[in-house]
Amino acid sequence: MEFLTDITLLLDSTLRIATPLILAALAGLVAERAGVVDIGLEGKMLAAAFAAAAAAAVTGSPWAGLLAGVGASVLLALLHGYVAISQRGNQIVSGMAINIAVAGLAPTLANYWFRQGGQTPFLTDTQRFGAIKFPFANELADVPVIGHLYSEILSGHNFITYLTVLLVPLVGWMLYKTRFGLRLRAVGENPEAVDTAGISVVALRYQAMIIAGVLCGLAGTVLSTGLGAYFIRDMSAGKGFLALAAMIFGKWKPVPTLLACLLFGFVDALQGRLQGVELPLVGEIPVQITIMMPYVLTVIILAGFVGKIQAPRASGIPYEKDH
Amino acid sequence: MAAGAKKLPWWADGLLLPALNLLAAFFVSGLVILAMGENPLEVLSLLLEGAFGFEEGISYTFYYATNFIFTGLAVSLAFHAGHFNIGGEGQAMLGGLGLTFAVFMIGDVSPFLSVPLAIIGAAVFGGAWAYVPAYLQAKRGSHIVITTIMFNFIASAVLAYFLVGPLQRPGGQMPESADFPESSSLMGIHEMLAGLGINFEEGPMNISLLIALLCAVGVWFLLWRTRFGYELRVAGQNQSAARFGGISVSRMTIIAMMISGALAGMMGLNELLGDQHRLVGGFTQGYGFVGIAVAFMGRNHPIGIIIASILFGALYQGGSEVGFEISSITNDVIIMIQGLVILFAGAMPHLFKGLLARIAGKLPNRSSV
After folding, report:
1. Architecture, CATH, for domain B16-200+209-351
2. Global pTM?
């Protein structure tokens, strides 16, 4: 019975941890599919986390937080788009610049507004996206297996986690079933062809950046107002980069990317559960070793299981009409 | 490159454009400072005073600059080989670890023994830490940007493991090692100057600055005066041309990244042997990332990197002095300015090129395309 509880808790936290990863990975996927490499997911997430927590704290509404978070992320996505698309600058440098600038700006503003050493105030339950209990979750909790699954794992997540579950098929549908999606994929593979067909490469790429901005904004918002209850410095803790790795592991496709994010979420949840636990044979694993697990796994996956893979052909390459 | 069709004179391209980009970054930073209700000009004058206004301040400015020369050269060397080494932070941490092992192994014998071995320890550990991502990039095509970032996280866990475990100061509670043997300390520049009969206030600036400058000369020589450097740059510019010319791109990737890692690893000489005299958790303080800003600000040329390092050294030292006067200007503001400098100087080097060309009247007004 204790084993079952362990598994339940593990799967429950897998879903929680995977939520921002999935959203950020989808953001990276949409941008790269359109030909813009976005190493700045980390910074956008952090900016959104700060803006959401700050707006929710000031207005008392998580919805205002959501709006602010998404807005901040979209602005940064457009800035990155301006560098990548209009200025034809180096996209990796731009992404890193955004990451570093936000890592400084967010705690600066937090400190200036709230005077709590670079944090935002603690959000109360009404100011954040709390757990949504499914109907009869409490009544069914004692039914073996199914009741457990329903009430402990599926029920009780926040609004954005459930939204994420809908967004994965939605992004897939947009990419593969709509004309816009076809064009978006084409502009990442062969912008010359799109241009020849009389469709604006620039406009398509900016549109992709806005979509990526919204998705990444949700990822940041859920960090500070769904999973957590305030903003602290560096709270994105490399999740933007893990998301990029998951996207590569998922070969730039929504469903495999989702699975990769769930795997990362699981490993992270597992490392949390393993801290300070005595294991048979090996004994207690030092906390520093468990902390490395998701990062080591990322490297192993990138090296061993992905191998040489094909990114969208034109991703990272600025488009110039006068070739 | 559309805007580069006609060339600006070298001084406009090499000096004026970076200066304009820097001004733009400072202008935006000024707006943020203004929005926080502070006077940007007052902040600037406090900053300059703090960085250059007194001898101890100057010493700190060059002390920070030393770190940035190491990490900036590291980023730039990898960049010339066509790779983005974002792992300077982790490589510096491992370099610090290697250096610590070296000085404790030698014990308190002689600086002529422990300092060279510390340099080797730092370079070897830093280079080895860069080897794995480089190998994976070269042989498996694993995205080096992501793997080097992952290696930063792993490095900080490794460092933490040693500092709360085997290397922790006996009986200590903090994540730090015991003090280094006395003879491993690097000589301060003020001591050197005193030897020459020049009186300079005591400060943290030490002979690692000279080692860093030597490294800059070395990198310049390697890149532009040797066959190896030529091959490295060809591999970075055009992989298929390199292969056609018989250059092994994967070999270049691995060697360039290892030298890059070794340079980043040597940052610990300045921080640890020069000032702290013990291994401290988190001693890298994000200086590995500053290397990115420095490399791009300095146009990936050793002379530019030295100038940019002094600039960033001044920003760090001056910034902390500003923090004493105006409490809302913290280290975070400096990090933000750094990000903006990378954005303007690194990612948009041609932002003002069209404008400049038009003003110079050298180019006719180009209607777009």
Report:
1. Orthogonal Bundle (1.10)
2. 0.88
